[in-house]
Design goal:
132 residues; alpha/beta; Nucleotidyltransferase, domain 5; 3 helices
């Protein structure tokens, strides 16, 4: 006589739907927490009227290299060995240098110009690109 087992063994399955529910709950919690951290209760203030000189807006220093591998600092043509001296004279404290290199410019010339600007004390560079 053959007896059956009271329990049949089944393979375990990983249910993904409860995991998705938990992930959505965490996403909603983090979104609400981030919104709660913002200060939305700003005080409305009517500032007094007065006459003052307009503040000068600092333009960033521009280091450009054209297709003919000519180097320009703020539209002023310079040679590679002059870049350090010109950047030292024009560089303000904590200012960015915008690197605008032509698509056909030599990579080596652009890198050498950036390295010369770094020797002059520049630390922050921003690469200019054309948006499509």
């Amino acid at each position: 006589m053959k007896l059956r087992r009271a329990r049949t063994s089944r393979r375990g399955r990983i249910e993904i739907i409860p995991m998705i529910d938990v992930m959505f709950f965490l996403l909603a919690t983090f979104m609400l927490t981030t919104l709660a951290m913002q200060r939305l209760d700003a005080v409305h203030i009517d500032l007094p009227r007065g006459h003052a000189r307009a503040m000068q807006v600092e333009q960033p220093l521009t280091l450009s290299v054209n297709r003919a591998n000519q180097i320009f600092v703020n539209q002023q043509p310079v040679r590679l060995d002059e870049v350090r001296a010109v950047v030292t004279n024009l560089l303000h404290k904590d200012s960015n240098i915008v690197v605008a290199a032509d698509d056909g410019a030599s990579h080596g010339v652009v890198v050498q110009a950036i390295l010369e600007a770094r020797k002059a004390g520049a630390e922050h560079f921003v690469v200019a690109v054309h948006r499509d």
